[in-house]
Amino acid sequence: MIDRQSLQENYRGVWDGRIGFGERPAILMIDFMKGYTTEGSPLYAEGVVSAVAEAETFLATVRELGLPVIHTNIRYFAQDCADGGVWVKKSTVMTAMADGNPLAEFCDEVAPRPGELVMTKQYASSFFGTSLASTLHASGVDTIVLLGCSTSGCIRATAVDGVQHGFRTIVVRECVGDRHVAPHEANLFDIHSKYGDVVSKFEAIEALRAAAANSKNGTP
Question: Which member of 81, 107, 154, 175 is catalytic?
């Protein structure tokens, strides 16, 4: 028998809770690299192109608010990308992230500024094999706000690990992208259901303005 119950009906009251923003947010700009926005690149994803445009204005706002911004990139330094292990064997397209390849450079519109931390990784999650969790905990961060790509890959992996490391995890819908709308929407649905909150750009900015104001006023 085909279950004709809608997804929303099926999940309602079971997998539809909200975690909300905490008091000390940090922005994670995940893997906004030119390989995803350069036409002809094997990694090219139209959804990432639009996400970069949305993220550019979002990033300008959070910088004005003085909130911490951390960027991640994928970079392989070993011959034949051996430091990518089995992931590169499975997803050979990731060899585009070899050191020295122009496709592995940050998108100019959202590139790190001097003083902004860059975490280099070899796998999907921004937490795996990096000091990200320790760095965030040491700074008292309780909320991570995710922008970047791809939704079904590094965004999802980081969201799952984020909640497992004890962070409130927020994904800004307009500022993440993928190569096809189906995995993009499916993974946003899963993240919002089980691992964090998927919110609009407007909602995220309003919450971040409030957090920045409370921080300046010394509100606990």
Answer: 154
What gap in Å lies between CA 209 and CA 69, rounded to an integer?
A: 15
Q: CB neighbours (10 Å) of residue 112? A: 15
Residue 147, token pair as written in the block: 């922008």
Cα–Cα nearest to 169, from 218, 219, 123, 127: 127
Q: Of 155, 95, 163, whose CA–CA distance to 125 is shortest? A: 155
Q: How far is CA 22 from CA 63, 126, 145, 210, in A?
A: 19, 20, 11, 11
**Tokens read off for 61:** 């706002």
Check the CA dihedral 106-111-113-118 and report its sign: negative
What's the N-to-C CA distance of the chain in angstroms?
53
Q: Are 74 and 121 in contact (CB under 8 A)?
A: yes
Q: Active-site residue 81, yes or no?
A: no
**What is the chain's length?**
220
Strands 117-121 and 197-199: unpaired
pLDDT band at 214 (very low <50, low <70, confident <90, very high): confident
The model's pTM:
0.93
Q: For 189-206, what is each residue's pLDDT tens digit?
A: 999 999 999 999 999 999
Residue with the two structure tokens 């279950």: 3
Residue 117 phi/psi, 5° resolution? -70, 140
